[in-house]
Every structure is written in structure tokens, then in C-alpha cells.
Amino acid sequence: MDFQLSEDIKFLKQSIREFIDSEVDPLAMEIEEKDEIPEKIMNMSKEMGLFGLSIPEEYGGTGIGMVGKCAIYEELGRTHNGYTTVIGAHTGIGSVGIVEMGNEEQKRKYLPPMAKGEMIGAFALTEPSAGSHATNLKTTAVRKGDKYLLNGSKHYITNALIADVFTVMAVTDPSKGAKGISSFIVEKDFSGLTIGKKEKKMGLHGSHSAEIFFEDCEVPAENILGQEGQGYVNALKILANGRAGLAARNLGSCDKLLEMSMEHAHTRIQFGKPIFEQQIIQHYLADMALDIEALRSMTYRVAWMVDQKMKVIKEAAMVKLLGSEVYNRVADKAVQIHGGIGYIAEFPIERFYRDARITKIYEGTSEIQKNIIAAQLKLEYL
Ligand SMILES: Cc1cc2nc3c(=O)[nH]c(=O)nc-3n(C[C@H](O)[C@H](O)[C@H](O)COP(=O)(O)OP(=O)(O)OC[C@H]3O[C@@H](n4cnc5c(N)ncnc54)[C@H](O)[C@@H]3O)c2cc1C
User: Fold this and answer.
1) N or C: at which end does the chain have fewer Cβ atoms within 10 angstroms?
2) Do 284 and 183 share a domain, yes or no?
3) Contact 249, 73 (CB under 8 A)
């Protein structure tokens, strides 16, 4: 396994670190309060190529592979998670379907504008009846001549309000269960598609989630991703990629929390000495560092496996689970080390603590990751 980063990626990482420190972090409070990512930050991110992280160079993207993408995600995870999620959803679940399963015509049409951020991507699987039970979809797609007519709805869809193109899973043959699901590229302007209102959320402000409604939504037949019946397998592959990427973003957030906690432990004086001198605080910090190193090793191993085109269903579930559990543990310890200031909204710690919580739910809950791991173990051992 080789996790060495090229000089180009190291340079990009450094540029992003500077961009975050000078441009994004100073606006984090504004993002939090207005629940919007400032236009200036979006435009600068596009100029830096951040919207093309998953897209091969021949279609205008960075072409840096999964190890490279995770290295960049790690940097992005250090700042406001709402901003990171807008980019993460676009460059992960919102575009990977077209990159991996799209035909040449679909790639030429959608990927160049997506790489520039002129078209934003989203991924629409979840429905009121199909959360963890993701094959229990009620949205249907019926072929009528050279079109499919989609009917149904999706909810909690990240980027729905800013997306131009959705990867949508719908049932084409209800008699076949998971094998009767197909996936489609759906443009926001296709007739019969409407977007619902923005949900109010505990965290991830600036990243919006909303419902999508399909009412005889007309999708050209050529917009099917792969073959009819391949949609659920496509969704699993897209989610496996997304889960590894999410782990890398969580890793960056954990790094930032450890850095802030170290600084606070050395500067906060109680009982006449820095709280770092208390062994229990040292142990909190040691536990955080241990968790983070374990997550780093697993994240890059899975990213490397993705680049080698290896099967990563079990490993992606493991790293998603580890990443969200570690992030929540690290955020909890960071609040504890900071004491009262860790609970005050003027400082970033409480925001990371709230933002950590969703990582145990979206892109498949922690319980579902354990189910996936156990199912894979059964295949391997029994
Ligand atoms: C902010 C946000 C953004 C999201 N973005 C997207 C997106 O972009 N695209 C998209 O398609 N979806 C998105 N989702 C949906 C998300 O993936 C689902 O919410 C998640 O998969 C859980 O589904 P559910 O909410 O229906 O919970 P449920 O499935 O109802 O689960 C409730 C609880 O029961 C547990 N449970 C259910 N079944 C089992 C089981 N078999 N074994 C053990 N435990 C079980 C769950 O683990 C959970 O603890 C988003 C959600 C949120 C909140």
C-alpha cells in the first residue's frame, strides 16, 4: 500500500489550508447564523477546482483518485462542516454515479460542468418508506416510448435546493425487489420535478436538505445509469465511495478538535497550572490522538483499495462506522476539555459537537453499517 501524496496534491492541500484559515473560518459564524454559504466562498472553491475532486482530468476534473480526494477532504473537514458537506455531497454521492456508471455520452454532457461547479450534483435514494430499508422504494419509473415517467418523492436530500442534477433511484419492476430498482440522471428542469422546503436542522448549517417530488417527471430514456435493474447495486457502489470520503472529512474535523484542545489545555490555568498538567486531561488527549491515528490508517487503506478497484463494501462500512464514532467521541472530549467555553456558541467546539452527530445517521446509520459488516462476514466465514 502506498499512501504517498504527489507534490501536486501536497501543494493543493497547502493552498486549501491557507484558503480555509483566511477565508472560510472567519465566516464560520456567519454561515452558522444565516444558514447559507457565502457566494464568495462558493466561487473561490470552484476556482480552486474543489468541485472537480472526483472527476477524471479528461472531463475537466482534478483526476487525483480516492487517496488524493481523501487528502483534500481531510483539509476541508477542518472547517465548517456545512460548507464541507456541500462540496462533499457534490464530489461524493452527487457525482460518483456518473463518473463510475455513466456512459461516454453522459460523462461528456454532465461531468465538465460539474467539475467547474457550474452544475451541482445530489443523490436521491431516501424516501419516507425507505430509510435504512433502502430497497423499500415507492418512487416508480415507467418507460413510455423514449422517456421514463417518474412518480413519487424523496426526502432529506442534501444539496436539493442548489442541485442541477440528481442521481435518482426508482423502481422499474416492482416484482423483482432490489433487482427491480434502476438509477437515473435527472435534471432539475425536467418537467414534473419540484423541490420542497428547506428542513431546519440541529447542525450542518449552510448545507440544505429538502424533499423532492416527481409527478409524471419526464426523464429521457438515455438518462438511465447503466441497465434497468442495476440501480440498487449502483447505489451501494456510490455509497461505498461516499462513506470512505465521509470518514476522511471526519478525520479532518477530529484533527482540528485535537489541535484546539491541545492549545486550550496548555493555556487554561486552574489551580495555578495549565489543565494539561492533570493526568486525566492528558489521557483524554491521548485517547483522542489514538482514535484519530486508527481512523487515519483505515481511511487511507480503504481509499487505496478504491483506487485499486477492489471490492470495499465491508471496509467502507467499517471506516464509515469508525469515522462517525471517533468523531463523536473526539468532539465529546473536546467539549469536556474546554469546559464551559466548549458549550458556548461563540466558539467553534459546540458547532463541531452538533455537526458530528449527523455522521452516525446519514449515508447509512451506524447500526446499518454493523449489519453490512456482519453480512459480509457471513459471506467470508460461513
Ligand atoms: C441531514 C441529512 C442529510 C441527508 N442526505 C441524504 C442525501 O443526500 N440523499 C439521500 O438519499 N438520503 C439522505 N439522508 C437520509 C439518510 O441517509 C437517512 O436518514 C438514514 O439512512 C436513516 O434513515 P431514516 O432516517 O429513515 O431512519 P430509520 O431507517 O427509520 O432508522 C431509525 C433507527 O432504526 C435503526 N434501524 C432501522 N433498521 C434497522 C435494522 N435493520 N437493524 C438495526 N437498526 C435499524 C436505525 O439505525 C436508526 O437508529 C440524509 C439525512 C439527513 C438527516
Assistant:
1) C
2) no
3) yes
29, 46, 89, 133, 190 from 81: Cα distances, Å: 12, 17, 12, 27, 31
Are 264 and 343 part of one and the same domain?
yes
Q: Are 177 and 185 in contact (CB under 8 A)?
A: no
Instruction: Please report where in the chains the cell 433511484 appears, as a residue.
Output: 169
Total domains, the chain = 3
C-alpha cell at 97: 454515479
Of the candidates 150, 85, 153, 103, the residue with the CA atom closest to the CA atom of residue 124? 153
User: Is residue 83 located within the same domain as residue 195?
Assistant: no
Nearest CA to ligand 1 atom 21: 364
Which residues does a 6 A CB cutoff place in the pocket of ligand 1? 89, 123-126, 131-132, 156-158, 201, 204, 209, 358, 361-365, 367-368, 371
Tell me, yes or no, whether 341 and 240 share the same domain: yes
- Residue pair 100/238 in contact (Cβ under 8 Å)? The answer is yes
* Domain assignment present for 363: yes
**Domain containing 147: what range?**
121-229
Query: In the prediction, which pLDDT does 382 show?
Result: 94
Residue 138 makes CB contacts below 8 A (sequence gap 6+) with 127, 129, 130, 152, 171
For residue range 244-293, list pLDDT tens digits in order: 999 999 999 999 999 999 999 999 999 999 999 999 999 999 999 999 99
Active-site positions read 363
Indicate the pTM of the whole model. 0.97
Of 229, 251, 270, the residue at which a domain comes to its end is 229
